[in-house]
Amino acid sequence: MAKRDIPEINAGSMADIAFLLLIFFLVTTTMDKDTAYVRQIPKKLDNPPETPPIEDRNICEIRANSQNALLFRNEELEDPNEISEKILEFYRMNEVLTESQTEARIQQSSYEGYNYPFYSFITLKGIEDAIEKEYKLAEEAEAVDNYDIADFHYKSVDDWKKKQKALQTLGINELKEIHPQAHIRVVVQQRTEYKLFAKIQSEIEEAIYELRDDAAKKYFVESYGVMKTRRAMDKADEQGDQPKLDVLKVLYPDRIIEVRPKK
Amino acid sequence: MSKFRKEEKKGAPGVNTSSLPDIVFMLLFFFMVATTTKESDPTVKVERPEGVRATDLTPYKQRSEIDFLYLGKPSNPARVDDFEMGYAMFLDNVAQPQPGDLYTANMISRWKKDKYESKPPRMVEPIENVITCVKADKGAPSILIFDIRDQLQSIDALTVAYAVSDKGAY
Hints:
Chain A is of the alpha/beta class. Chain A has helices at 14-28, 83-92, 99-105, 124-143, 147-170, 194-220, 224-233, 242-251, and strands spanning 29-30, 35-40, 59-64, 70-72, 75-77, 119-123, 174-178, 183-188, 256-259. In chain A, the strands form 2 sheets. Chain A has a 5-stranded mixed beta sheet with strand order 5-4-3-8-9, covered by helices on one side. Classes of the chains: A alpha/beta, B alpha/beta. Strand 2 of chain A pairs antiparallel with strand 4 of chain B.
């Protein structure tokens, strides 16, 4: 039999098929990324333990009213862009002090950083003692069936363990830690626009980012943003970023309290 | 007899289109890689505020560890008056949607629970780690954000994300 040419397949409609697919993807997908500020909501407790009084110096309060005017630590603020610098000041004012300086200045009301949180110096030994103490308190609370209080103490055990871990990761013996009660408090009113609320969150994030980024570059020679993104992509944490991020979180905690506006 | 042929009437030669599919496929692949799927088309108008240093939620989306909630004025102007302060919520993938898909805050805990329970157990993170992303309009009053937070708190869904459009590093 004579050899026959196999007829070629007509590929003229290939372009049409590809266009169809292209248009389908154009319609069903979006270009813009979803970006957001992730925050933790505190757990609801039935019998919350009494909170010890918090000194004013440890509160970094940002207020916004219904007219969208701002108050930062009881001072009026015209430009919301200044918030991040002020938060940085809140964290860094007393960070440079040594242990003896801290002890001297904490009493001295004429000192310019008197109204800012002080740093404490904790050692591995101190952490071990604290863990033991919290365990004891938790067990005592459990003995009288007060589980909320027990949980509270178990949580502080976890906190101390995080600090212990951080010291171990860094390979040092002493941790300089901002006052454990130091926090940022966002107080808004009912009609404060979300735009301003988001702006405050943005400024807080910017300040925390800068603090942690500096520390990341100092201790791990890497940018905080890079580590954070890599951790989010890598669910199993094969790159070992989580311990490092935990260290940064211990060094510069982002304790943010968002206060519900009154009715 | 002439050496020059008379010019024949000729049409313009056809353009070779055999590489057109290649070009279109290239475009197609570009869009497949560079974009993400829309989760749903909300029936409220949301104009996101701006912010810097926001967390990129794409990895959580790819793992479906996130639920989206939109807060804005209803697109249908006739319904604006039905809601407190004129703002309504749109929830993604509700099991039995209401007309217009508009809700108030008190629906959130049920929606969140339903979604959480419908997931296959092997994928389930503890509920406090499943992110609820609130995409609120610039003008939304803050009290509604706190209503949402209260609802989430009541079912121990303790991670919330406030959506902004990232300006990037200034």
